[in-house]
Amino acid sequence: MAEVIVALDVDSADEALGLADRLPDLRWVKVGPMLFLRHGPAVIGELKNRGVSVFLDLKWHDIPSSVAGAVEAARELGVDLATVHASGGKEMLQAAVSARGAMRLAAVSVLTSHTPEGYAQATGRESVDLPKEVSRLAGLAVATGIGAIVASPWELATVRPVLPNGTWLVVPGIRPPGVELGDQHRTADPRAAAEAGATHLVVGRPITQSDKPEVVYQQICETVA
Ligand code: C5P
């Protein structure tokens, strides 16, 4: 069984809160830069008041003290889960862990929008085996005490065995059958991702851009229940 996290990648707080209010038995939402930069802490407070868990996805990758400061601020806002980049390295990850308190941190491995070729180009390598790369980054992150890994559906089988029991696998790139991929490359349908070991599915546009978001949300929840 996997939890469904709705990525509220919309422009306004009204739209985000209106959508949250339409989705039946909503448990988790994700706030990214689009919404956070416009409405910041206020929208997090509004969402928390509705009893939903908040995933703040700002994917920090900075010097250790700056990341620790950001983690502390997120924790003070009541955020439940926040992201750092695993490629920020051991010291940055340790600094984040030392500031997290009861908040859970997820380490982003390789963005789901990367193809193997695009990632190789970005990292100056001839070719990259992405499942191995994701497992390497996940191993680095969990060794520092990070409790969740963000990976695409395509790496789940390889990465799951390197994770300690209880580590969350947070998986974007979810597309119900027939829904457009958009800029995502490494995708799967909700059932396949849950069966492959995802504990949390991140779903944005298939819900936010649907005419009937509540129907799509409910169908996905039922599929992975
Ligand atoms: O609209 P869609 O379902 O593609 O949204 C996926 C969400 O997951 C976006 O908010 C995106 O920022 C986030 N995400 C991702 N890939 C990662 C980490 C986060 O797509 N590796």
What does this structure look like?
The structure is a single chain. The chain is of the alpha/beta class and 225 residues long. Helix content is 44%, strand content 17%. The protein is built from ten helices and eight strands. It has helices spanning 13-22, 33-49, 64-77, 90-99, 116-122, 130-143, 156-159, 190-195, 205-208, 213-224, and strands spanning 3-7, 28-31, 53-60, 81-85, 104-108, 148-150, 168-171, 200-203. It has an eight-stranded parallel beta barrel, surrounded by five helices. The chain is globular, with a radius of gyration of 17 Å. It starts with a strand and ends with a helix. The mean pLDDT is 96. Cytidine-5'-monophosphate is lined by residues 7, 9, 30, 32, 57, 108, 111-112, 150, 172-174, 182, 184, 202-206. The site of cytidine-5'-monophosphate has 19 residues, from strand 8 and helix 9.
List keywords for this structure.
17% strand; alpha/beta; 10 helices; single chain; binds cytidine-5'-monophosphate; TIM Barrel
Annotate the secondary structure layout.
Layout: E1 3-7, H1 13-22, E2 28-31, H2 33-49, E3 53-60, H3 64-77, E4 81-85, H4 90-99, E5 104-108, H5 116-122, H6 130-143, E6 148-150, H7 156-159, E7 168-171, H8 190-195, E8 200-203, H9 205-208, H10 213-224
Parallel strand pairs: 1-2, 1-8, 2-3, 3-4, 4-5, 5-6, 6-7, 7-8
Helix pairs in contact: 1-2, 3-4
